């Protein structure tokens, strides 16, 4: 029970919520947790060529008690699953999990008795990143999308229950639009509105392929 539970939902609490979420997303500390070949790409993202420190993730923490982001990079075996859960339980709240690669997301090519078919059977996952392995640019894009999700997280159980009742969901916009300069953002958003983009979350809204027009007249 904190102070935010006793305050009414007003401008003050909303501003505090945004400030707290901004500090959390600007200082994510990932745990040093590489399981398979996807860990090579994760380590590359921290190298000078990609420089993950630009987003407040300068040092991978060796202790789970000093980390708040677990990047599960690679497949998880059944013997490794209890260790994964133990490390997750040792991380302080709030904490987030990113499943990096198709093996961590759904088992990938290892569809057998020894590999967990998706790390979400062991820990709750906040962001799924496909690829075999995903490039460092894809990992950085997933982290930026996780930043957008963190910015919309409620502060306190009371606020979380109200958002759950309203059915609010974090809008997942392309990072190339969201993090572009303001002038390019406006142009991209206007282009998107004019193209009548379907909502892929609704059933039956898949775009229909357009057939090319074949001329019927003779050669000119």
TrEMBL record:
Keywords: 4Fe-4S, Cell membrane, Iron, Iron-sulfur, Membrane, Metal-binding, NAD, Quinone, Translocase, Transport. Residues 175-220 are annotated as: Disordered. GO terms for cellular component: plasma membrane; respiratory chain complex I. Residues 37-146 form the NADH:ubiquinone oxidoreductase-like 20kDa subunit domain. It is found in: Cell membrane. Its cofactor is [4Fe-4S] cluster. [4Fe-4S] cluster binds at residues 37-38, 103, 132. Binds 1 [4Fe-4S] cluster. GO terms for molecular function: 4 iron, 4 sulfur cluster binding; iron ion binding; NADH dehydrogenase (quinone) (non-electrogenic) activity; NADH dehydrogenase (ubiquinone) activity; quinone binding. NDH-1 shuttles electrons from NADH, via FMN and iron-sulfur (Fe-S) centers, to quinones in the respiratory chain. The immediate electron acceptor for the enzyme in this species is believed to be a menaquinone. Couples the redox reaction to proton translocation (for every two electrons transferred, four hydrogen ions are translocated across the cytoplasmic membrane), and thus conserves the redox energy in a proton gradient. This is NADH-quinone oxidoreductase subunit B. The lineage of its organism: Bacteria, Bacillati, Actinomycetota, Actinomycetes, Pseudonocardiales. The gene is nuoB.
């Amino acid at each position: 029970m904190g102070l935010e539970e006793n305050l009414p939902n007003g401008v003050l609490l909303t501003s505090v919520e945004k400030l707290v979420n901004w500090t959390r997303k600007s200082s994510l500390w990932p745990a040093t947790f590489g399981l398979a070949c996807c860990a090579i790409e994760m380590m590359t993202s921290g190298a000078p060529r990609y420089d993950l420190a630009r987003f407040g993730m300068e040092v991978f923490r060796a202790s789970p008690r000093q980390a708040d982001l677990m990047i599960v990079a690679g497949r998880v075996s059944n013997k490794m699953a209890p260790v994964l859960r133990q490390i997750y339980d040792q991380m302080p709240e709030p904490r987030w999990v990113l499943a990096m690669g198709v093996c961590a997301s759904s088992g990938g090519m290892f569809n057998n008795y020894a590999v967990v078919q998706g790390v979400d059977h062991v820990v709750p996952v906040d962001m799924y990143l496909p690829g075999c392995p995903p490039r460092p640019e894809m990992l950085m894009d997933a982290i930026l999308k996780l930043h957008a999700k963190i910015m919309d997280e409620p502060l306190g159980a009371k606020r979380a229950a109200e958002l759950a009742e309203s059915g609010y969901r974090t809008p997942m916009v392309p990072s190339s639009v969201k993090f572009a300069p303001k002038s390019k953002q406006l142009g991209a958003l206007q282009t998107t509105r004019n193209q009548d983009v379907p909502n892929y979350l609704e059933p039956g809204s898949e775009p229909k392929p357009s057939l090319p027009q074949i001329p019927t007249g003779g050669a000119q």
